[in-house]
Design a protein that fits this description.
About 50% of the residues lie in helices and about 5% in strands. Helix 3 crosses helix 4 (about 105-110) and helix 3 runs antiparallel to helix 5. By secondary structure, it is mainly alpha-helical.
Length: about 130
């Protein structure tokens, strides 16, 4: 990359033109985007053996056959045992991002790391 100096700016050892600054910022943005992409590209592998303490908040609703919750409205709570891990991961990530709006589930999902989500999903995928 070639640096061009701004002829109108007072001359200092750090005077760069606006065009050069834009190029540098664009390169920085690309580098940061690449780092973020690398972090999300690596699939997190769920471990059902480490999910024991992580599922304690799930069991109270999802572990009771025929259970109905009353917040924010009365509805039948789905049994999640036996669902695919990918489905459960996608659902929890959607709650975490706000794409799904159930307030209790969103609150729970927001406290979970990607590893927690993968572990819980792997655990429930093995349950029938």
């Amino acid at each position: 990359m070639e640096f061009d100096y701004d002829d109108d700016a007072p001359m200092t050892s750090h005077s760069l033109s606006t065009a050069t600054m834009k190029k540098l910022l664009a390169l920085l943005a690309l580098a940061l985007a690449g780092l973020a992409g690398a972090a999300t590209a690596a699939d997190v592998v769920g471990n059902p053996k480490t999910a024991g303490s992580k599922v304690s908040m799930c069991i109270g609703c999802h572990g009771i056959p025929g259970y109905k919750a009353s917040f924010p409205e009365v509805y039948s709570v789905p049994m999640i045992g036996g669902q695919t891990a990918k489905y459960l991961e996608n659902a929890l990530q959607a709650y975490k991002k706000g794409d799904r709006s159930h307030p209790t589930m969103r609150g729970i999902a927001m406290t979970m790391s990607d590893q927690d989500i993968a572990d819980v999903a792997a655990y429930y995928a093995l349950k029938k």
